[in-house]
Design goal:
single chain, alpha+beta, 4 domains, 5-stranded antiparallel sheet, extended
Amino acid sequence: MRSFLQTLAEAGHRIMTKKVSCIDRASAWLTACRLGALTAATFFSGIIQVAGAATPSIQDTALNTGGLEPIYHSELPLPLPRPDIALAYAAIPIEITTPEPRPSIEDIFPKSTATLGQMITQQTGLDSGEEKIFELRSGEGVGKLLRRAGYSEQDLAASIGAMASKTSLRSLPVGLKFTVSENGFVFSNRAGRDIYTLRDPTAGWLTLTAIRPVESYLTFAHGVINNSIYKAAAISAVPDNALLEYIKIMGFSVDFQREIQPGDAFEMLYERSIDLLSGKEIGTQLHYAGLRLSGNQLGFYRFNKDDKGAGWFDKNGNSAARTLIRTPIAGARLSSSFGMRRHPISGYNAMHRGVDFSAPTGTPIIAAGSGTIKKAGWLGSYGRYVQIKHNVTYSTAYAHMSRIAKGITPGARVQQGQVIGYVGSSGRSTGPHLHYEILVNNRRVNPLTVSLPTGEKIDPSLLDVFRRMVMLVDNEVMANGALRYVTNDLTLLDE
């Protein structure tokens, strides 16, 4: 609108200021009127089109104004829309190569045979000859063992050179068995693996790793504890290493010497690995540890929480491990409790600020928790004495030792379960025993009743995975005839 009025004003100004004839003035006025009409028509046409009414185009409007051509006019067609790139180019199939899966280690390595001679014949075509078994002695390396077996210096150097290129010869345990013949020898440096070193008629001595056939079986065991957990586990044929791990897990929460009552029951789910060549059990792995204790049920599950290893947790993801172990000695008898008592030497009543565990001289004593050695040495009536500072709150003390373990010195770092000394009767003592104290903020408390905090919890991001694993374990336990639970009734039912 503003442009239209400005145009009329400018045309009138030119007409009035210029000295032209009446005819020229009339012509100018006519031109201005035509221009104004065209501009107005264009302006109102746009308004009507925006409002949605059926209105002629700009070209039609121009024709209705006396046949005048529009000011802006082009015969060029409107540009076509850009084509979709998906339609512009024909589809060309792309060949995607699926990566081959990583081969199983059992497909890479050969299989172990029942005898050394079979492997020698299979790999080299030679006969084994007579086979003998040699055990690695203390201070002895593989070279000395082979020299004892009768190897020449030339064969000794060549065979050890071939073996050293395939496996580490350091830290081989004393007692490791080698099966040796004139054309080769074999030993196992880990469960399920054999290391063969063989004389090849063309390539000389060579070393190869072979896989022993091993099968694993999931085994469930449970039983009622009438006398001790050891006897009950023996009746159920529980392997020793599975039982020891079970006791270690439960030891954070239960004192097996004093809290177990007749009728309490245990349950375990463990994996057994059997060497099919020898028929021997080569390892066990505990997966679940359960205990019905005075009507209450304890249960802990093995779970690989990270790359650092596995931990033990209850159904809620709380760690089974606690800050301290209540009983830092295995199989000991409680001979004196915490509190007032008549002193066995002085005969006077006095406060006994710890607990005593009677055990044979030399019985190992373990650290109740990880920490730093604060004191280690002779301490008056305590005799040989060790104190460990675990954190700002908790410390533990161990007295009357026959000797302190090597490396246990002030400032040394120890781990929970590490042997720190051995039972004795040093200092003011009437017989071999361990005097054990727990200090909370430097105040002695009853080790058997003090509340101890648990360790870490499972990371929330892993809880779903953990719960699925718990469900699978529980299903396996129930399917194998475990403790049958009906609501809150924890009665052991007959099969």
